[in-house]
Every structure is written in C-alpha cells, then in structure tokens.
Amino acid sequence: MSKPETHRWLTRNVIAIGMLSLFSDMGHELTTAVLPLFLATFGGGALALGTIEGVSDGASSLVKLWMSYYSDRIGKRKPILAAGYLATALMGGFAFVTAWWQLLAIRTVGWMGRGARGPVRDALLSESVPAEVYGRAFGFEGAMDTLGAIIGPAIALALVGIASLRHIFLISFLSGAITVYVAAVILRERPRARQAHKTLLPSIASLPRSFRRFVGTVTIFGLGNFAHTLLVLHTVAVLTPSRGSVAAQRIGLGLYLLHNVLCAAVSYPVGALGDHLSERSLLGVGYALFGILCLGFLVAGANLILLTFFFVLAGIYIGIVDAMERAFAADLTSPSQPGTGYGLLATANSIGDLCSSVVVGFLWSHVSTAAGFLYGAVFTLAGAAALVTIPPRPQLKLEPAAFSTERSGSAD
Known about the structure:
Blueprint: H1 12-40, H2 46-74, H3 78-89, H4 100-127, H5 134-159, H6 165-170, H7 172-186, H8 200-205, H9 209-222, H10 229-243, H11 245-274, H12 279-300, H13 304-332, H14 338-366, H15 369-386, H16 401-410
Helix pairs in contact: 1-4, 1-5, 1-7, 1-10, 2-4, 2-14, 3-4, 3-7, 4-14, 5-11, 5-13, 9-14, 9-15, 10-11, 11-13, 12-13, 12-15, 14-15
C-alpha cells in the first residue's frame, strides 16, 4: 500500500532547495577553507580571522530578521532568495584583494546576502512539506548543504600547492551562477496573501512564547559556538613546527573536509530520527558535543589522532544541530509567519557567532588558546542545559493548503 499523500516530502521545492544549498556551500565553503591560508599572506592571525568571521556574521544578522519578516509581509520569497544567492557569489572577488580589510568588506557583503536568503529559504522549505516530515526535509537540505561543503574544500585541497590561492577563489563564481539560476527559474513558490498590515516588533511579539524561549537558548549556545575556521587555524599553528607549513596547511584542510563529510553523513539520518524521537533531546546532544570537543582541544596539542577525533566530533555535532535546530523551530513557530520566526532564530545565531568568533580570536591572540576553548565550552554546555526548559515538540501542523500547490508542482 502506498504512503498517504500527506507524507510526501521529496517534492520539487525540497530538491531545488537542496541544489541551492549544495552549490552555494560548494562556493562559499571553498572560499572559507582557503581564507585562513590566504589571510596569512597579509600577516593576519587569529584576531584578524575572528574579526572577519564575527563582523560578517554580525552584518548578516542585521538583514536576517528584517528580510524574512518582509517576505512574510509581501507574500513573496523567491526575489529575496535570488538576490541573496547573487550577493554570496560575489565572494569570488577575494581573488582581487590586496589587503585583509578588503577581505572583510567582501565577506561582509557576501554574508549579508547569505543572511537575507537563509531564513527565507527555511520558511519556504517548511511550507513545502507537511509537519510530520520536517526532520527529513531539513535533514536532506542539511546533507546537500554539507555535500557542497565537502566538494568546496576538496577542490581547495586538491589545488593548494598547484594553483595560486587567488585562482582557487575564482571557482566560486561558477557555483554562484548556478544558485541564482535555480532560485530564479526552478524553485516554485505557492501564492501567499500579502500581510501589509504587519509591522516588525508586533510580529515578533506575537510569536509563541515557547519559540521565543527557544531563541534565547540558541543565543546562549551561540555565544560559545565560534567559527570552525578558527579550529583550522589552530591546527595549522600547532602542526607547523613539527611538520612544516605546507604539510600543516594540507592536514588542516583535510581535517576540515573530514569534518564536513561527517556532517553530511549524519544530517539526513538524524533528521529522520527526529521525526520519530525527541528533537529537543537530539539537539541537546549536539550542543553538548561542541562543549566536549572544546575541552578536548585543550589536551590534544599537536597529537594528530586526537585532533582528527575532535574534528570528527565537530562534524557530527554540526549535522545534528543544523537539522534539529530548524526542525524544532518549525514545530514551535507560528505557521502564519514562519519567515519572521526563522529570521529571529537566524539573528540569534548571528549575534552569538559575532560575539564568540571575535572573543575567541581575541583570547587566542592576547591570553591563550586554552582561555578561548574554555570560553566556548562554558557557553555551549550552558546552552545544552537550557534546552531542558523548552517544552518538547508540540504537535503544530501546517494546514493541507500550505503544501498542496507544491505537490502539484513537484510533478513538473
């Protein structure tokens, strides 16, 4: 007997959004993987990298909430998605910079595009499937996202030492062009009524209380969840004295690639598991894993076996958190304004990323790496503990009309 129609999840939009995530992450993860190596040619260290990562995330947070709320208000998401993917593609411009502050400027513009499109994409994805399969849909998107994050660093790893870093950056222009095409042509959007009467602050205030508490918990975790490029920078630094600069760089990129492989491998299985078990509990495991690996890096030193193990944990934790955080949010937020809900969630993540990356970069540069890792461990473990206060998975369901158009479009 075939499954009921309401349980279909691999629709045209889910596939299109997966392709968007794959090619977008292929481009910007390629640039992200090479960024620490390229930055070093300008004499920039942990503080410069932390500033670039943190300021980019901070700028991203300025547009995430407003653009996602605006998509709810105007009843359209595709134009925002296309513009956001176009802005992210511009990070190929790293190939032409002559100073690290120019890296900061281009990365900031690219991340603002990423911020504008991310919550809008998540809202469109949540509208494209029934609530019973949120975990699978977001898990699939997360797996495709991370597959792109594997391909990008793999290309960088293959070309480091063969092509110049500037030429490697140019590859991201091609993947960016593909994302703009998919967003503008292939993606389908269900007609939605304009909500011109809505204003931002009342829209936020009308979100369910449990969702707003969840956003507070995400913020606590985010304050310790620093950018993983700092882990690459740390690994290269501790391995260079014994293995040489080029070998250390290749190992750092290789471990980052392994970390992304693990993330892709667990995203969909964890998403499917979340459809049957407690999303909140699985998310708590993911939060706790990052705190544990921060403590682990304190004792790893230049031991390659331990460094590899903790990069594996980092990949697993991201796969869990990426799928479960957004699936749990879909259960908690209001079906009438998912864009605003995802925008608030993404803004909380960006604020945390801004603070954590800048603070950890400062601590590594001016105090010690141990201080930075301890800082990360305290806040991420606190975030895991705070999840206990959030009610587990209320059974909020989308109305059938919310995805009926998408079903008919999936046959195109």
